[in-house]
Amino acid sequence: MTRGVIIFWAIFVLVIGIDYRLTDRPRLEPKPFALGSGEASSSGHCSGK
Known about the structure:
The chain is mainly alpha-helical. 41% of the residues lie in helices and 0% in strands. The protein has one helix and no strands. It has one helix at residues 3-22.
């Protein structure tokens, strides 16, 4: 690995660690994919109509 890649991942892990320590609990964020999470939309390409 190059020095830049090692520095990038070290900073990435450090920032995630700081964020985790400063918050009370993990943040509730929406899921990136809503598979099987309810009814399909009634119009558009997702409707299947």
